[in-house]
Amino acid sequence: MSVPIKITVGVLALQGAFHEHIKLLHQAAVQLLAETSDSWRFIEVRTPEELTICDALIIPGGESTTLSLVAARSGLLEPLREFVKTDRKPTWGTCAGLILLAEVANRTKKGGQDLIGGLDVRVSRNYFGRQADSFEEDVKLPFLSHGDPSYNDEAFRCVFIRAPIVEKILSSVFGEQKGESIRADTVTAPAKDLDRVIQGATEWPVEILANLPSRVAKAAKETGLAKMKEAGDIIAVRQRNVFGTSFHPELTTDARIHIWWLKQVEYLTSRSKHLGVESISSH
């Protein structure tokens, strides 16, 4: 039997929907009581000192440029990069958080957006348009089932507000994504600290966890005009310890994604605390 551990999850509380995330994390923890003996603590993170006590972190939706600017002024940018890319602690970014966790973001002026990085993807900012173009969509999220055939696979109500999408899955490289940095209106995250990065961390490919069915294909299907492929836009990805969603689960009352993510956090944190950090890169 495993020894119970205490897990501290932080929510970056510089701007955006951090209160909503905290609320759903508490709701998720209550629902996990029957499955685990581990204990949870959820805190708001505004300083490097608060970040150091966290085992995992959520970067909420908001305005990515504002988040990165305030993080830089608060002395948090480099600690965040170390947390995600060197220490490889579990991190989840929603909407603006996904943009910050991408290695590359387009539709951005050079020098106008600092990225944390951690996900070898290129994101397209404000892909669906302005605030007035925000929408909600019911989307099936098979990754939530954990392969359990008894799982309730009811569609998740996804909220998209000036949302990004994952435009391209990139090859994992040490250092900066230099091939992407030459693109117009594109910014890249700084290179990883090669002397301190966990060996083998870049060997994990990006997993596509969810797609938003193409609106064109959906309209064609509804009208019966044509059959089209419905792979759609990439709206959820994971690369080892980093998870990103284009949409805002925190703006719903559905805690299923938070429950799923806490289980991922529990697994990775347990291995780290019981076996040492090196084991995370060997699993």
Can you describe this structure?
- There is one protein chain.
- This protein has 283 residues and is α/β, with parallel strands linked by helices.
- The protein contains eight helices and 13 strands.
- The chain has a seven-stranded mixed β-sheet with strand order 2-1-3-4-13-12-11. Strands 9-6-5-10 form a four-stranded mixed β-sheet. It has a two-stranded antiparallel ribbon with strand order 7-8.
- Strand 12 (233-239) and strand 13 (242-245) form a beta hairpin.
- The longest helix is centred in the C-terminal third of the chain and has 20 residues, at 256-275.
- The chain is globular, with a radius of gyration of 18 Å.
Tell me the number of helical segments per DSSP (H or I, 4 or more residues long): 8
**Strand arrangement in the largest pleated sheet:** 2-1-3-4-13-12-11
Percent strand equals: 15-25%
Helical content, roughly? 25-40%
The biggest beta sheet reads:
7 strands, mixed
Mean pLDDT: 83
Features:
single chain, 283 residues, 7-stranded mixed sheet, 4-stranded mixed sheet, 8 helices, globular
